[in-house]
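Notebook, p. 212. Picked up where the previous page left off. The plan for this session was modest: take the two constructs that came back from the sequencing core last week, fold each one, and keep the raw output in the notebook itself so nobody has to go hunting through shared drives later. Recording the first one now, exactly as returned: residue sequence, then the structure token string.
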Amino acid sequence: MPFYRKAGEVPRKRHTAFRSPSGALRTEELIGSRGFSGPSSLLYHLRLPSASTSFKPLRTLRVEAAPERALSPRHFRAAALATGPSAALDRVPLLFNGDASISMVRPAQEDDFFYRNGLADELLYVVEGRGVLESPMGDLPFGPGDYVVVPRGILTRARLGEGPHRWLVVETPGALRIPARYRNEHGQLLESAPFSERDLRGPEFRPPRDETGAFRVLVKAGEAVTECVLGHHPFDVVGWDGCYYPWAFNILDFEPRVGRVHLPPPVHQTFEGDGFVVCSFCPRPYDFDPAAIPAPYSHSNVMSDEVLYYVRGEFMSRKGVEAGSITLHPAGLPHGPQPGRAEASIGKTQTDELAVMVDTFRPLAVARGALALEDPEYPASWSRTT
């Protein structure tokens, strides 16, 4: 995240004595990525952020892959998925590789602990529900259609508001970022980008929490979650500045591109990661040439696995999918509109479809937990005319 923010009280110079009105020295903490060479922020605490009183293993995180089978398109009716109550601990993995994992969660109650993913950046797509993501940098309200980006290592806790709640979660050990082709050499978003800095929301700073007690912090790292107990409230920050913090962007603030004839999927790209991209398919006018075929042309994914999460609307190239469906079209197999869908799209003027796509450049494995959601008839749907 290349955009600088400052909130609360910070000293004029970095790494210099910064004291409270009573003369107590504030504790400076750097949080960032890639050692000391990536994006970072400096936080100023009332107390030591490292002063945990105990550590203990809580659970392991090994994801079991489903048995391999013949390469084919796959459809998972994820709308039927039930998960446990925790936004942090009860995510159900569906698809994964070494670059990205895709899971769903339906949080039902607020966590009574704080959570830090020390393993991956997180992209939370809020399908439904409202709340506030708390962090040491402040409060970040979220609602339906929001992408919420949480860089690795930032402590968070979700306060849940109006529900029910359903999130699509993408985790990556690499860096999640705005595509380089949308930015100039200084990091500013270009006039031609499909969104601007005005569309991005950062945390709203709030006064520090000056409380002592036993505060549980759960840290995800390696293949385990560790519980640490901190003797004071972790959100005791009096001020911070930098370029590393949670932020949000609503999918409906993405400005879709429309051409005289059909444009390829890269025009929908919203984020990039190491080994994958995320795209947003939003309501938009269709192609305006009288002979244009709005439905996408068939294409062979010879270098990527395509995952689509269908949020809502009429999906012009697919039948048999529903809101909450997830489809996987693996590299090496051609795919495109099902029989009759291309013809039916001719003359249509607009679409109200809303979907999130994740394309990975290495093959995805299917998690064993996804098998109960699978539609076995989907691979044959291109061979049927009804």
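Okay, moving on. Second construct, recorded in the same format:
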Amino acid sequence: MLSLSQIEALAPDQAALAAASKLLKPASWPLMARDAATTVVWGEAQGSGSAPYRLMFDPADRGHKCSCPSRKFPCKHVLALMWQLAEHAERFTVGEPPPWVSEWLARRRPGPGRPAAEKEPGAPSIAAIAAPEPEDPGAQALAAQRRARSEAAREAAVGAGLEAADVWIADQLGAGLAGFPRRAPAACRAAAQRLVDAKAGTLAARLDALPAALLGRPDGMRADFVITELGRLHLVSAAWRRRERLDTRLLQDLRRCIGWSASRDELLASAEASRRTGEWIVAGVRHVIQPDRLRRTETWMVAAEGADDPLSRALLLDFAPVQTGAAGDILPPGERFRGELVFYPSAAPLRAIVAARTPASALAEAPPNGPGLAAAFGAHQARLAAVPWLGDDLVIAGACQIVEAAGTLQAWDASDGFSLPLAIEQTRAAAPLVGMPLGGLAGVWDGQLLTLLAASTPAGPWFADL
């Protein structure tokens, strides 16, 4: 077992130790586990996004690896894992190494451990770094006042930005929607920048993505799509002006739609956040490059049981600069694990984080079958009624088929003739499913088109590469 002095010696510098000391709370670790047969330990450390970094450490020879982009070795996550192993070994569950740990072990070559590093002259010990500083009540009060002033200033800026957005919408309608696709790139970019300046970043990103989404639709859908998107923007603006009358959870939805966010610690401490513990299956993962050069990674989850539960589906969101790659390892489609998900307060909860989890099963699974396609769409309509500016939503349906009709692929339920059109970009990928009896499917519905994530086929689970 490592001692604290050995961990200090392994650290690249005191700054890395100080950073590691901030990661010792159990809330920062959805998973910490060890192998009963060996000394290897592994974990998942929560970063700024919802998908955690994956790391492993072998105390026998000090070997380690982490999926974070840090250039320090070992990084703060590995140091924190070592630290918890030294002081809180009881926090580690015992289990078989998951594939990502087994692959690392298979590639490794035993080698000598890293030599102990010289401590910086006068550097504090690891115990001193971990010791909390006493809180100053006066400083806390001043900080609270600054936060209140900052919040009031942001609300005023958002209000002004949304009023300007209403004027912009009126200008677009006055100029005629027939010419909107031609002028959309420049017009939406300028309007989105004004929303960014008004501190409404999430709403700005949605408006900025409108031109590309518009071009990705059949000609016959474009006019309805533009009207729907502009209507949603106006609805958000109108709701903001009447926010005092909104239910608390709907107000949380509105603020999040505009651009407010909550840290992981704030969400875990929130009394308004809903929680669900059970078996979860990754229905699919979608990567989207946003106009602001961020990669948005969407991990869509579904509960293995209890499809009628309002908390039976979840969305994990991660954002990372395009040039740096994905933020940590992404949960692969079909992965199943037992864990606790904490949902952001909402009138129709969907977005969540993983608070804690067990190691995943080795076999990929398709999401459980849902109701008929019409009933699944009706459930979406109910969520849309609860949150009128709801965007993409997860649809889980039972037995159906993928058929070709009117030049497009559609998910079709033979029992009632109900169908939903698939996204155009999936025409080739979903072609092998045409005519095949599907036990069920999971997809993302954007109000007009269904992006297929997964399907249960007679040959086994099928997952889209998105």
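Notes on construct two before I forget. Confidence is low (pLDDT under 50) at residues 111-119.
Flagging for discussion at group meeting.
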